[in-house]
Specification:
By secondary structure, this protein is of the alpha/beta class. The chain is built from 26 helices and nine strands. The strands form two sheets. A five-stranded mixed beta sheet has the order 1-3-2-4-5. It has a four-stranded parallel beta sheet with strand order 7-6-8-9, with helices on both faces. Helix 24 links the parallel strand 8 (393-396) and strand 9 (413-415). The relative contact order is 0.10. It binds iron/sulfur cluster (SF4) (2 copies). One iron/sulfur cluster is lined by residues 25-31, 48-49, 82, 85-86, 88, 90.
Amino acid sequence: MQTNFTPEQLADPAVAQSEAILRKCVHCGFCTATCPTYVTLGNELDSPRGRIYLIKDMLENGRDADEQIVTHIDRCLSCLACMTTCPSGVNYMHLVDHARAHIEKTYRRPLANRMIRNMLALILPYPGRFRLALRLAKIGRPLAALFDAIKPLAPLGAMLRLAPSKVEAATVHTSPGQFAVEGTRKARVALLTGCAQPALDAGINRATIELLNRLDVEVVLPKGEACCGSLVHHMGREEQALAAARHMVGLWHEEIERDGLDAIIITTSGCGTTVKDYGHMLRNDPEWAERAERVSGIVKDITEFLVERDMPATLRPHNLTVAYHAACSLQHGQRVTTAPKKLLEAAGFTVKQPAESHLCCGSAGTYNILQPEIAGKLRARKVTNIEKTRPDLIAAGNIGCLTQIGSGTDVPILHTVKLLNWAYGGEVPSEIASLVEQNRSRPA
Ligand code: SF4
Ligand code: SF4
């Protein structure tokens, strides 16, 4: 794509980066076929190519964001399916990140939207506040229909409906600490505790630590951990996201220097995509760039780490069929596609891949709150495709997807690592306890 930026504009490293990305796009439109918002809404401006044009026009003309561009960029899930499809290597992720930051700086949103976004940014990254909000949401759930009827407040209705009936308290597995191995240590890793995940399902961290310990991997949850910045990053809050990144880089780098780390393990793939990008996010910060690169370089999704290890024979013979839902952040953001399925198969599960597995379930960070209508359509489509495989259960590697899909189906759904921990000697996860019981009498 031809661009016309002035040398003055290109002096800004963010603009120079976006210009280089824009130049790679050849308008072929292959990406439109796999874009969930284009597939759902059928509007070119809700496709990657359409958004690329809008972003180019805004940046090239040095314009403030307006209502039209905000509408179409807000509708983008940042699922990155377009990046997987694009034959020209267009880095849509960095382009839309820049556009979102530009919108945040130059556009004044309507009051209700502004307040809801501020509220999300002030609550979600803080586990204590998030737990309190979930408890209040339980009480306020009857108001959901009322909020739905007032369009600008519809996100509040979506939020109340998504809140789980059970809020998990902090446990030893979600608090700072060290989990040493009994035998000879084969590796040492830090685990990202997460902010929303422990309140929604503390069992994910527990299963991860138990399984890693059983494989002679020592696990540390460093003191002082905070949100990785992913949620605010996707809202265009650049400074807040960079501050979060610097904090976590400092913490993990200190751990690397002190006792050494073989990997930083992430069990929420949405966070994993951001943490793997820290090197890029802090590239222009001379004080942090090198450390950020070093930290990003050892970040691994839990399945990426496990697939490289010698897994023992599974201890739990069973006869269960799992529909594996590939979270966008894992399949498109991190290109981790085969490891989860390989691990589940090796652990004795029959793994089914639902149709249209490239399409997002509509979770996408805060998307299912801020864009409830599109998110609802995507969830219905995803659940239909999953249920067609007639699975006993569903596995996924991202808490957002677990919450989103789980709110639309009665099929048990749980994190991949909980299934693996059970298969290799851990407790049966509560989500499938009755299923496992029934399964015992099923012929193999
Ligand atoms: S990130 Fe997803 S929703 Fe956004 S343009 Fe790309 S494919 Fe479409
Ligand atoms: S597939 Fe890539 S090159 Fe083609 S229009 Fe989409 S972003 Fe541009």
